[in-house]
């Protein structure tokens, strides 16, 4: 009960913060811009091997695909930025304000504080991802025809089944962002400068994406935190490529546990000097 | 029972600097304990260890009988604190800031939160500014809001680290009155300051820190007793007077330009005066004086800029 109250307080603090609302608004605007731009450009079918390109080819026939285009486009930078800001700020921001020492003297409990912080980061990641999906779905429905969904593997499923797949895709992306949130939380426990923590998470994301795109480094690819983010296209095939999906989810879980443990070990043993 | 007790409490920073060096504190229940020392003498580091914010390098500390830092979540809700100045969310109002800290307290009753927050704000005279954003508060208001946070619940112990820091004389008086009020309710108050004068009027006990060591701990009368009373004789012949004083068994006899002085010790002033006259010293003036608390404090902590090392 009391944990619920603390969680609600933390959630309000994050959700009502003008900066964070602005981030969510920016994330919501992107699918609109992409949808309108694609509508105006009237995409024509063409060959392609990447998932993104495949989505573009499908969009003309079905507005639902705007959600997949939006998610895969925003996953490169916008969604990670949105999550990094909240995660990087989580502990470092409190340390910067000096409120961390008062929360601990309340006492909030170090483990409990960290758990509540991470709970809200995950909630925020979930929110951001669902906002992107929802806005993209609405914009797609308005701008393009909507009907039975033709998957990347060529088979067609009903619109309802397609929307269910979309739900799973959104949850998969949210899981990826929740794992990134754990990395952000861990980095956030290392400093009292929120901006430094946020920048560090972003540098990590970009570095991971760059390394993942160097063919000579393909061996380390699967171990990179960003490698499996776009694998949600496995859900858009029949049969579903569960092995890839599970690899992705495993990667997210490992990163979340690894960095969550690191954050806990660090936060419960370090002196609070801010 | 002691409200705060430490034994051999020590903190060595990673850089190797010894910030707190084997201090043994005993703060009696119901006392107003002045924790004194110059800036950098280890007061705040000690308070951080008492509150479980920093971990001791060695030694033990207990708050209200509960060992720290292990018992932090069991005992801290009975302790109000102000550590190194107020800290709140600038974008929240005063009342919302208090609600935030109250929500973090797992033992606080949500149903009474609103009433308790209003009550705490009222006690520090901030009720009118409850809906004002913290960033628009004056320094004195910020300080008082921090004290209000310490008063959100009935507490057995209040730890205030430099509560008058940066305040004008008016603000300082207000805070002092507030501390008196808190103490009158039976709450033990542990208040740190680098100025003896600021806490002298409200404290029953003091501890004096110098470069990480507790150089005195006890009641104010005990501190006064550590100051040796000196007898001073005004005379035309200080040298001769000093000789007589030494002959009477008084220690540290000094001859100055127009007077001689020595530590009175167990001797009776009347006797000393009579002996001086008998020895043919022309006594123009005779006085016995104890050093002021301020003198004793400066004697304990050192003076000037060399104190914090």
Task: Give a brief outline of the structure.
The complex is a heterodimer of chains A (274) and B (309). Chain A has 274 residues and is mainly alpha-helical.
Topology (elements, then pairings):
The complex is a heterodimer of chains A (274) and B (309).
Chain A: H1 2-15, H2 18-41, H3 51-59, H4 65-74, H5 78-97, H6 99-105, H7 110-143, E1 149-150, E2 156-157, H8 159-188, H9 194-212, H10 242-269
Antiparallel strand pairs in A: 1-2
Helix pairs in contact in A: 1-7, 2-4, 2-5, 2-7, 3-4, 4-7, 5-7, 5-8, 5-9, 7-8, 8-9, 8-10
Chain B: E1 2-12, E2 18-23, E3 26-28, E4 32-36, H1 43-50, E5 58-63, E6 66-68, H2 72-75, E7 79-82, H3 94-104, H4 113-123, H5 139-150, E8 157-161, H6 169-184, E9 188-193, H7 196-200, E10 205-210, E11 213-219, H8 220-226, E12 230-235, H9 238-247, E13 251-255, E14 259-263, H10 269-278, E15 283-289, H11 293-301
Parallel strand pairs in B: 4-9, 4-10, 7-8, 8-9
Antiparallel strand pairs in B: 1-2, 1-3, 1-5, 5-6, 10-11, 12-14, 12-15, 13-14
Structural overview:
Chain A is mainly α and 274 residues long. Chain A is 71% helix and 1% strand. Chain A has helices at residues 2-15, 18-41, 51-59, 65-74, 78-97, 99-105, 110-143, 159-188, 194-212, 242-269, and strands at residues 149-150, 156-157. In chain A, helix 8 crosses helix 9. The longest helix of chain A has 34 residues, at 110-143. Chain A is globular. The mean pLDDT of chain A is 90. Chain B is built from eleven helices and 15 strands. Chain B has a six-stranded mixed sheet with strand order 7-8-9-4-10-11, with helices on both faces. In chain B, strands 1, 2, 3, 5 and 6 form a five-stranded antiparallel sheet that branches. Chain B is an alpha/beta fold and 309 residues long. Chain B is elongated, with a radius of gyration of 24 Å. In chain B, helix 3 (94-104) packs across helix 4 and helix 4 (113-123) crosses helix 5 (139-150). Chain B has helices spanning 43-50, 72-75, 94-104, 113-123, 139-150, 169-184, 196-200, 220-226, 238-247, 269-278, 293-301; strands at residues 2-12, 18-23, 26-28, 32-36, 58-63, 66-68, 79-82, 157-161, 188-193, 205-210, 213-219, 230-235, 251-255, 259-263, 283-289. The longest helix of chain B has 16 residues, at 169-184. Classes of the chains: A mainly alpha (274), B alpha/beta (309). Chain A binds chain B through residues 1-3, 5-6, 8-9, 13, 17-18, 97-99, 101-109, 112-113, 269, 271-273, and chain B through 48, 51-55, 72-73, 76-77, 79, 81, 83-85, 87-92, 99-101, 103-108, 110, 149.
